[in-house]
Specification:
Oligomer: heterodimer
Largest interface: A-B, 48 and 42 residues
Distance between the termini of chain B: 36 Å
Radius of gyration of chain A: 23 Å
Helix content of chain A: 25-40%
Helix content of chain B: 10-25%
Number of helices of chain B: 6
Largest sheet of chain B: 8 strands, mixed
Shape of chain A: globular
Structural class of chain A: alpha+beta
Strand content of chain B: 15-25%
Number of strands of chain B: 8
Strand content of chain A: 15-25%
Structural class of chain B: alpha/beta
């Protein structure tokens, strides 16, 4: 993975010193809270319902074991012994003290980490495929491109006060695991007919109040032009994006208002006019960055390990976990391990310091020192030998990290909701916990099959409810928590925004409603048909009829 | 308000003239884009230093053909969160090769100064609460830059390649 050189290190060190002075000025009363707010947000520090929250950047979701141990150490020393992985592959601490935050950032800097641009109206942390470098279907490791963009976007002087926040995701594979189509910019790495690498550029996707699927503005951008083309898109947005209404300020509204064709024309004109202005990387830099993402020293192994096959036969618990939580690796004899952070009845994405250390130890011993965070709030050990899987599973089991539910009904995305967040209008976490408990029986979960439930505690849609197979949006109705249910959303290559199935229902009826939806699907599904396929075939009517039976 | 120019606090030799106010007979003045467009001949006939002030909604293209008429271009930040002038500044400097004074006006605060400087501003009508002398420290807090901008500072990738940022054309 990428290693800082003296230049990268100097920037984060100076940034810590700068923030330390800002906190000092705040505590000394030289800065009011209003004046301090934009400064702290630039370093990921929010003020929530009960306390400050510090959001730490995990660029493109990649962590080393040392970095994970640093997070564990911070959780113990400065928080309540746990952290929370978010849908942007970042990690949040929910209980830091303001006066400790400069020290926390200094600890992070020692491990080549930071909290830059995890908030504010700037280019946020870049996300990438959690299976980068391991996926069998990958054109190129997307982290190379993501690191190029991370550096370019860090303290970008022109784009630090955009109309609104700006999120970029990169995938190197046709199977979209980063929800690229619902990002401000989604980038898909491709090869053209001549075999050259380049990018498909999609702009104007997003969730929030006005969910939209992005439009392709370039089918194939030669890779050497990446940064200048991004700069052209950002400049058009910075100058023309709406600033009069917070809820209409994202780039999706600009793309929609202008029309994709006119927006594209403006970007292309801006890009052409840049001409000789030096924006793109000098030669050699891409290669330098790429060298950090060279494949690890894989062993030459047979495609199927004999012990692995035998262990699955002997231990049904292991076999069940292997069936759900492993993904195919490009290297024969290796597997991608998904670590579920969704134990039955648990809080999606939460992880204790002790669990972080267990994962760090496993990564060090069995996965070339690499860990990934996923946008679905789970973790990944990307490169594990099949022969080591049983040992990995046993350790995960010892730490309550072995839940075999990846992609199943209890693998729920939920925002922090009203338990933490000042914007939320309803709770998300307790609902996720109740649904998970209702479907605790793993055999039943397997029978239901792949099903993505996503819960947002307010219209800002941090829980991605629009693209859940089943989406729940919490709304406040005269002081009561109600939930609007959407069906048929998808965040993948077949991206779709879910449709509202009927009137919102109160909190205490939601779990029953989920069960009704699932039972309806089971009654209607054809052989081997997943929830989404069934929904697309039969539409919302049968679900609606069963959900809104007159009492 | 203090005027910061080229990293120092200086006296301001310029006067902002409102659209309704009569044009003073002598001395450098800064007028709005609307007034420049409406009274162009009269302003040229004054034969005195002239500056123009752009709101954050005005575009660099609006004055691109007249840049040699101006000694100062002032770009407004109606609120520090309104970042349009950062783009306008870079366009004036890098695309249209404007070489005169580029002045930030409006809500110009301490922690935005280094970003503005990178986009090509060299003068700042500073209104922050931190004393202007202390605010000058903001320029030196971070000396690593990751991207080419109007200040032509060598960025990280250029330093790594062992050569300065490629020259402007």
């Amino acid at each position: 993975m990428y290693q800082y050189d003296t230049i990268d290190q100097k920037l984060v060190d100076q940034r810590v010193a700068q923030f330390r002075d800002q906190v000092r000025r705040r505590l000394a009363g030289e800065l009011t809270e209003d004046e301090f707010k934009p400064l702290r947000l630039m370093n990921g520090l929010y003020l929530q319902l009960h306390a400050y929250m510090l959001r730490i950047a995990v660029p493109y979701g990649t962590l080393s074991s040392r970095q994970m141990r640093t997070l564990a150490d911070i959780a113990r020393r400065y928080d309540k012994g746990y952290g929370h992985f978010t849908t942007r592959q970042n990690l949040q601490f929910n209980w830091p003290k303001l006066e400790d935050t400069p020290d926390i950032l200094a600890e992070l800097a020692k491990a080549q980490m930071h909290a830059l641009q995890t908030s504010g109206n700037c280019i946020r942390n870049i996300t990438a495929d959690q299976y980068a470098g391991a996926a069998a279907d990958e054109v190129e490791d997307p982290r190379i491109t993501a690191e190029v963009i991370r550096q370019w976007s860090t303290l970008h002087p022109e784009f630090s006060f955009l109309p609104r926040k700006f999120k970029i995701a990169v995938t190197g594979s046709a199977r979209d695991r980063v929800a690229a189509r619902v990002h401000d910019i989604g980038i898909v790495i491709k090869r053209n007919d001549a075999g050259e690498l380049g990018y498909q550029i999609m702009v104007g996707g997003g969730l929030g109040r006005t969910p939209m699927v992005g439009a392709t503005v370039r089918e194939f951008l030669p890779r050497r032009h990446l940064l200048s083309y991004l700069e052209a898109i950002l400049r058009v947005f910075n100058l023309a994006g709406r600033r009069d209404n917070l809820y209409k300020a994202r780039i999706k509204i600009l793309v929609h208002d202008l029309g994709a064709e006119e927006f594209t024309r403006q970007v292309e004109a801006e890009w052409a006019a840049m001409g000789q202005e030096p924006v793109d990387l000098p030669s050699g830099e891409l290669e330098r960055i790429a060298s950090f993402f060279a494949p690890p020293a894989f062993e030459t192994l047979s495609a199927v390990d004999g012990d692995f096959a035998r262990q699955q036969l002997e231990d049904p618990g292991f076999a069940q976990w292997a069936r759900t939580n492993l993904a195919r690796h490009k290297q024969p004899g290796y597997a991608i391990v998904n670590i579920s952070l969704k134990p039955i009845g648990g809080i999606p994405g939460d992880i204790t310091a002790e669990q972080m250390e267990a994962v760090a130890g496993l990564a060090e011993r069995f996965s070339f020192d690499e860990i990934r965070a996923t946008h679905e709030q789970n973790l990944v050990l990307p490169h594990v030998r099949q022969a080591d899987l049983y040992a990995v599973w046993q350790t995960l089991k010892d730490h309550g990290l072995d839940t075999p539910n990846l992609g199943l009904v209890s693998d729920i995305i939920a925002c922090p909701g009203m338990d933490y967040c000042g914007l939320a209008t309803a709770r998300s976490i307790p609902l996720a916990q109740s649904i998970s408990e209702r479907f605790a029986d793993l055999d039943r979960q397997h029978d239901i099959g792949e099903l993505k439930i996503k819960i947002s505690g307010c219209i800002n849609a941090c829980g991605h409810h629009h693209v859940g197979h089943i989406g729940l949006l919490g709304v406040d109705r005269r002081g009561e928590e109600y939930y609007q249910i959407t069906l048929g959303g998808s965040a993948e290559a077949d991206a779709a925004i879910g449709g509202i199935v009927g009137p919102a229902i109160p909190y205490d009826r939601v779990v029953d409603a989920i069960e009704t939806i699932i039972e309806t699907y089971i009654d209607l599904r054809a052989d081997g048909e997943g929830f989404l396929e069934t929904y697309r075939r039969v539409g919302k009517e049968p679900f609606r009829e069963n959900l809104y039976v007159p009492h | 308000m203090s005027l910061i120019k080229d990293g120092r606090i200086v006296a301001d030799p310029w006067r902002h003239v409102d659209d309704e106010a009569p044009l003073p007979a002598t001395g450098g003045i800064i007028v709005s884009l609307a007034r420049w467009q409406a009274e162009r001949s009269a302003l040229i006939a004054r034969r005195a230093p002239l500056g123009v002030r752009l709101s954050s909604a005005d575009r660099a293209e609006d004055i691109a053909g007249d840049l040699d008429r101006f000694d100062v271009i002032a770009l407004e930040f109606p609120a520090f969160k309104d970042g349009r002038a950062y783009s306008t500044a870079r366009l004036l400097r890098q695309r249209y090769q404007y070489a005169g004074e580029l002045r930030a006006v409006g809500e110009v605060l301490r922690d935005q100064l280094p970003l503005m400087a990178r986009c090509g501003f060299d003068a700042f009508e500073y209104v922050g609460k931190t004393a202007a002398e202390e605010a000058l420290e903001a320029f030196a807090e971070i000396d690593v830059v990751y991207q080419a901008a109007a200040d032509r500072r060598p960025h990280a990738a250029a330093l790594r390649a062992g050569r300065p940022s490629s020259p402007q054309t």
